[in-house]
Amino acid sequence: MIKYGLPVFAALTLTFAILKITASQPVNAKLTPPAAPPSAVYANQVGAVGLAEAESENIAISLPVPGLVTRVDVKAGDQVRKGARLFSLDDRDLRAELALRQSSLALAETKLEKLAMSPRPEDLPPAEAKVRESEQLYQDAAVQLNLIESVRDKRAIRDEDLQRRGLAVKAAEARVDAAKAELARLRAGTWKPDLDIARAEVQEARRQVERVEADLARLVVMAPIAGEILQCKVHAGEYAQAGPLAQPLILMGGTERLNVRAEIDEQDAWRVKAGATATGSVRGHGGERLALRFVRVEPYVIPKRNLTGDSTERVDTRVLQVIFALDAGARVYAGQQLDVFIDAGGAK
């Protein structure tokens, strides 16, 4: 057993190890790709990666002021008209301030109306009676003065009494002038500078109301154009931040027609001419070729941002963006990537 058993066991162990190593080796199977890769279209062409976008370009809806979202009126896929309500922020504090400003405006308008209606009809009769009274008192004082002056024997009267009667006439005359001036003032109505001040106060109060109304309008986000809601990432009860965001609250655009933004490597940018013809294929459906119509070239070369995920793709490069238009009815979604082939036959 010792002489023959140990070699047999070693041989079995070696055979088992060889079988396990052989079974663990990878098998290079030849598989057919699920979709045919895109093929060359033109004899001399430039390839690019394109991204479908709205004809109006994608519009990232933002806010001028942050706030609590209280109402959302749209969802992804909705078609909206220009000026349609998209969502609203909490406006309770501004509505309370608006009520206060409106009360101040009503008070200022009432004061102006009161000044403009002055004098009241009831104010004139007392003033007129005051004038008549003062005239009668003046006449009485004048009679008293005439009586004392008519005494022939001046020794019968004191000089002091004569002077006092004269002063009484002058005082009565002054009271007549004052009463007539007061009556004239009432009949003339409110002084113009007072009216101007009251009108200015009304205008200021009205501007305060308009300012609060403008602040309220900013809390209601409206659609800037007629188009389709591509994304809606805002919900009632959330706190929405103002300014540019990494994830826009709402993404929308005019999608009756779609454009393709093709990014051409800066090394091939010189080969693309304005008006060049091009075709595109949706990722995963290389057999279908979509006609692309040249729209424009955006002349500023920018760093590459639209990545395909290919392990051999260069990311430390700059690209020239060329805009092409898809035909209406093309089965492409906004945000979908396309392989774009641009005819560069005339490039030298």
Question: What does it look like?
Answer:
There is one protein chain. The chain folds into 3 domains: 45-55 and 256-343, Efflux pump adaptor protein, beta barrel domain (Elongation Factor Tu (Ef-tu), domain 3, Beta Barrel); 64-89 and 221-250, RNA polymerase II/Efflux pump adaptor protein, barrel-sandwich hybrid domain (OB fold (Dihydrolipoamide Acetyltransferase, E2P), Beta Barrel), CATH 2.40.50.100; 98-214. The chain is built from 5 helices and 14 strands. The chain has 348 residues and is of the alpha+beta class. Strand 11 and strand 12 (290-303) form a beta hairpin. The mean pLDDT is 86. It has helices spanning 2-24, 92-116, 124-149, 159-188, 192-218; strands at residues 45-54, 59-61, 67-72, 79-80, 85-89, 220-222, 227-232, 239-240, 250-253, 258-265, 278-282, 290-303, 318-326, 337-343. It has a 6-stranded antiparallel β-barrel with strand order 1-10-13-12-11-14. The protein has a 4-stranded antiparallel β-sheet with strand order 2-9-7-4, with no helix packed on it. A 4-stranded antiparallel β-sheet has the order 6-5-3-8.
Number of helices: 5
Number of domains in the coordinates?
Answer: 3
Q: What composes the largest sheet?
A: 6 strands, antiparallel, barrel
- What is the helix content? 25-40%
